[in-house]
Design goal:
It is a single chain. The chain is α/β, with parallel strands linked by helices. It has helices spanning 43-55, 74-86, 102-111, 126-133, 138-150, 170-180, 206-213, 280-285, 290-300, 324-327; strands spanning 11-15, 60-64, 92-97, 116-120, 154-160, 183-187, 219-222, 231-235, 241-245, 258-261, 266-268, 276-278. A twelve-stranded mixed beta sheet has the order 7-8-9-6-5-4-3-2-1-10-11-12. Helix 1 links the parallel strand 1 (11-15) and strand 2. Helix 1 (43-55) packs parallel to helix 2. The structure holds S-adenosylmethionine (SAM).
Length: 329
C-alpha cells in the first residue's frame, strides 16, 4: 500500500476497545460515555480487518485502546493474529497497555508471539500516579511490568510529559528504566478530545525537557527506528535508549507509515486529522473480503500529508474532537 505521497503503509494500530480502567487526566474526562457494544466490532471482525491489512502489506500490528487488556477474551484475538507471525507475513504483533492486567496476561502474550510491550507509566510516586490516572494502582502496574519482563517480553516505558505534574520525575524514571533494562519514550501531550480542562496547563515542549536532561545525562542522537514516530537518543550512563515523540515541536509526518482502526471499524488515515473511512459497512456487507479490500485501497489513496496540531493561547480546544482512546495512542 503506497499513499499519494509515496509513503508505504506497513503499520496498523488497532484500538480494540474505547473502554479503560484508568481515567488519565490528559486522556479522558472522569465521566466518559462509552460506545454501545453493538457498534463495536467483534474480535472475529477485528481479525478479518487486520488480516486483510496483512494481505495488503502491513508488517506490524499494534493493539491498543482504551485499555486493550480489559476487552473480554482479548487473548483469543492475540492468538488468532499470531498465525500471521508464524507464516512470516507479519514481522511484529505488539500492544500498548497501562499494565494493570499484565501480571495476568504476560505469559499468554509471549506464547501468542508478542515480543515487546509498551507500558504507560507517568510517575513512580504512588500518590501522583493515582492523581494522574485517577483510578490507577501503581503497585499493580509494577507487578505487571515485572511479570512482562519475567515472561521474556521486552518492555518500553511510555511517559507523557506533563508540566508541573511529572516534570520533576524524568531523571528518576530514566534511572529506573536503566536499572530494569527498559527503553523509555517521552511523549508530548496532544490536543485530542475534550478533557474538561485547559491543555495549555499540561503542555511541556520536549525540546525544553531534552535541554534539561542534558545537564544530568549524556545523550547521543542515534538513527534507531522502532517503526513509530519517536526519535531516539542513547543515554551513555544507563546504556538504554530514550525516545522523544514530539508532534507539536517537531512534525513527524514525512515518515508516517501507519493508519489507525477504531473498535467500530473506522479507519483514520492520520492521528491528527478528521478524515476517515468506514470499514465496518463493507466488512458486514459481504462474507468475502473484496468490498473490504476495495474500501482499504480507497482510504489509503486519501491519506493526508500531515497533521496540524497546535497548542497555544489562541487554540485551547482540542485539534481533533475524538479522544486518544478512540484511535489509540
Ligand atoms: N491504555 C493503554 C495505555 O495506557 O497505554 C493504551 C491506550 S493509551 C490512549 C496510549 C498512550 O496514549 C498512553 O501512553 C497514553 O499516555 C497516551 N495518551 C493518551 N492521551 C494522550 C494525549 N492527549 N497526548 C499524548 N499522549 C496521550
Amino acid at each position: 500500500m503506497i499513499d499519494p505521497f509515496g509513503r508505504h503503509v506497513t503499520y496498523l494500530r488497532v484500538s480494540v476497545t474505547d473502554r479503560c480502567d484508568f481515567r488519565c487526566v490528559y486522556c479522558m474526562s472522569e465521566d466518559m460515555t462509552f460506545l454501545p457494544k453493538a457498534d463495536v466490532l467483534t474480535l472475529e471482525e477485528i481479525d478479518r480487518v487486520c488480516s486483510a491489512f496483512v494481505r495488503k502489506g502491513v508488517r506490524k500490528l499494534r493493539l491498543t485502546g482504551g485499555e486493550p487488556l480489559v476487552r473480554r477474551n482479548i487473548m483469543g484475538l492475540f492468538k488468532l493474529l499470531g498465525r500471521h507471525l508464524e507464516t512470516g507475513e507479519l514481522d511484529e504483533l505488539t500492544l500498548t497497555t497501562n499494565g494493570s492486567q499484565l501480571a495476568k496476561y504476560a505469559a499468554e502474550l509471549k506464547d501468542a508471539g508478542v515480543g515487546r510491550v509498551n507500558v504507560s507509566v507517568d510517575s513512580l510516586d504512588a500518590d501522583k500516579f493515582r492523581k494522574i490516572t485517577r483510578w490507577g494502582d501503581l503497585a499493580k502496574v509494577m507487578e505487571g511490568v515485572r511479570a512482562a519482563r519475567d515472561a521474556g517480553l521486552k518492555v518500553k516505558i511510555n511517559t507523557v510529559a506533563l508540566k508541573d505534574v511529572n516534570e520533576d520525575e524524568f531523571d528518576t524514571l530514566i534511572r529506573w528504566c536503566g536499572d530494569e533494562g527498559f527503553d523509555m519514550t517521552l511523549i508530548e501531550t496532544m490536543p485530542m478530545g475534550d478533557i474538561s480542562h485547559d491543555r495549555n496547563d499540561q503542555y511541556l515542549p520536549l525540546s525544553k525537557v531534552r535541554k534539561r536532561l542534558e545537564k544530568t545525562w549524556t545523550l547521543a542522537d542515534i538513527p534507531y527506528k522502532s517503526g513509530g514516530p519517536a526519535r531516539y537518543v542513547a543515554i551513555k550512563e544507563t546504556g538504554r535508549k530514550l525516545g522523544f515523540i514530539t508532534p507539536l515541536t517537531h512534525n513527524f509526518c514525512e515518515s508516517c507509515n501507519r493508519v489507525r482502526l477504531t473498535c467500530t471499524g473506522t479507519l483514520y488515515m492520520c492521528l491528527g486529522q478528521n478524515d476517515k473511512s468506514d470499514l465496518r459497512a463493507p466488512l458486514r456487507a459481504s462474507e468475502s473480503d473484496h468490498l473490504l479490500e476495495a474500501a482499504i485501497d480507497e482510504a489509503i489513496g486519501r491519506k493526508p500529508k500531515g497533521h496540524d496540531f497546535v497548542i497555544d493561547r489562541d487554540n485551547r480546544g482540542p485539534a481533533v474532537p475524538r479522544h486518544m482512546s478512540v484511535t489509540g495512542g
